[in-house]
Amino acid sequence: MRICVIGAGYVGLVSAACFAEMGNRVSCVERDPGRVARLASGQSPIYEPGLDAMLQAHLASGQLSFTDQLDEGIKQAGVIFVAVGTPSGEDGSADLSHVLKVADELGLLLEHECLVVNKSTVPVGTAERVAQRINNRLSARGKGIVITLASNPEFLKEGSAIEDFMRPDRVIVGCDVPLGHDILRRLYAPFLRNHERLLCMGLRAAEFSKYAANAFLATKISFINEMASLCARLNVDIEDVRRGIGSDKRIGTHFIYAGCGYGGSCFPKDVRALIRCAEQEGMEPGILRAVEARNALQKTLLFQALREHFTGYWQGRVVAIWGLAFKPGTDDLREAPSIVLLDALLAVGVRVQACDPVATPALAERYGAAISSGQLRLSTSPYSVVEGADALMLVTEWKQFRQPDFARIRGLMRMPVLFDGRNIYDAQHLAEQGFLYRGIGRPALGHCKASAA
Fold first, then answer.
1. pLDDT over 90 for what percent of the chain?
2. Element of type H or E holding 418
3. Is 204 within 8 Å of 175 (Cβ atoms)?
4. Does domain 299-438 have CATH number 3.40.50.720?
5. What is the CB neighbour count within 10 angstroms for residue 82?
6. Which of 50, 56, 94, 346 is surrounded by the most beta carbons within 10 Å?
7. Which residues have a Cβ under 8 Å from the Cβ of 91 and sit 6 or more positions away?
8. What is this structure's pTM?
9. Rounded to the nearest 5°, which phi and psi values hold at 396?
10. Active-site pick, 28, 231, 266, 355
11. Strand 351-355 vs strand 376-379: parallel, antiparallel, or unpaired?
12. Shortest CA distance to 17 belongs to which of 78, 84, 66?
């Protein structure tokens, strides 16, 4: 098929590359000329394992191309995917300005019948608004062509997005006419050869499914984090509880790991948008508000634990942080727990030494002043940042951090104190190694008291 993907952000770029992988001819439209030039050279502006190689292969084969001209991108395209950003507005609702602008432009440029598919995360009813705006402009131009609208929400996880797209656990297709279902069923057939997981439904149900899925997963995370806080008061290890409830098939093991909060571009934004949607419909979203509040509190727990350990005495302290991205496998810092922790540490005058395999360049852009003053030092080496540290705080559970040389770390640190924000370490083993271990919802083990200097 000839496909146009509008938007070369995370979703659009991965979608374009994966559709090209299956032999489709794909044109990806991106308005930023500098970004287009970089993409045309085979360099991805985002970090996603395997994406650069895929871009280079399909640019060379001619299956994939990039342009900053919408009229060029949509020429001869039978399917047009809209994958532009929908950031949170000031009131928490999804900002649809980019989506609606694309709709207006399509109405002014389209010369042939096609299927327009909204892949952006949007509130219920957005596809109907897009269709209306396209058709109004087509009518004003005297064009009698028929444009079919569909919704095809994405369920990609940063760090494994290509695998998720190539082997999806489900593909949701929303359309109010059979034609849209039929076209997208053919398009996705190569991705679903082993198992039929294409779910057809109406436009509104598809739009709502994405929000409901993310809100439910965020709820599971906030629930286990609240249980972890109660465990901490009752001297119970949340890891034992997690295994206990995760063995129940009705609950399962996914998204019930206690930690220092979720971040990223999806969960926080989508929970806020769903809260705003409920408010607009006159409904009080009590569960969703509790999920959001719990997560905001969770992001402060590491700093609170450190303040308790140091008894509020911050002068001369050096803190090492492992992991800055909101999750492993990405350089994305949006709403990352590390930002909340880092802001708090810098505000009280602590010197911070932070390490992340890929996110340090993005963090350097944000904290230039702290780096220039010497209060913040960034590195990709986990051992260099622990040297002379009074505490080590694990925030993002990259594989590089899972089995480090703790004997070496203990020798490098001024004080062997470890705050495990993801509960990935064996607390008893660390205590035997001479560390004071503090996890999330786990009893503290080991002995190491902070000195006053």
1. 93
2. strand 417-420
3. no
4. yes
5. 27
6. 94
7. 276
8. 0.91
9. -125, 125
10. 266
11. parallel
12. 66
Spatial CB neighbours of 433, under 8 Å, sequence gap ≥ 6: 406, 407, 410, 416
Contact 52, 42 (CB under 8 A): yes
The CA distance from 208 to 125, in Å, is 9
- List the CATH code of the domain at 2-201: 3.40.50.720
Q: For residue 447, count other CB atoms closer than 10 A to its CB.
A: 9
User: How many angstroms separate the CA atoms of 347 and 211, rounded?
Assistant: 35
Are 63 and 99 a contacting pair, CB within 8 Å?
no
Burial of residue 213 (CB within 10 Å: 0-12, 13-18, 19+) is middle
Could you write out the DSSP letters of every residue in 89-144? -TTSSB--HHHHHHHHHHHHH--S-EEEEE-S---TTHHHHHHHHHHHHHHHTT--
**Phi, psi (5° rounding) for residue 444?**
-70, 140
For the chain, give every domain's residue range: 2-201, 211-297, 299-438
CATH code 3.30.70.1450 for 211-297: no
Q: With contact defined as beta carbons under 8 Å apart, do 106 and 31 qualify?
A: no
> What are the residues facing 2 on neighbouring strands?
25
Q: Which amino acid is at 184?
A: L
Cα separation, 29 vs 64, whole angstroms:
11
Inter-residue contact 218 to 224 (CB < 8 Å): no
With contact defined as beta carbons under 8 Å apart, do 153 and 210 qualify? Answer: yes
Place of tokens 């993409």: 39
Element (H, E) at 420: strand 417-420
Measured CA to CA, the distance from residue 159 to residue 286 in angstroms comes to 32
pLDDT in tens, 122-136: 999 999 999 999 999
Q: What is the mean pLDDT of residues 227-235?
A: 96
The angle at the Cα of 187, spanning 183 to 188, to the nearest 5 degrees, equals: 120
CB atoms within 10 A of CB 407: 10
Domains 2-201 and 299-438 agree in fold: yes
Residues 277 and 297: their CA atoms lie apart, in Å, by 23
Q: Is 28 a catalytic residue?
A: no
Average pLDDT of the chain, as a whole number = 94
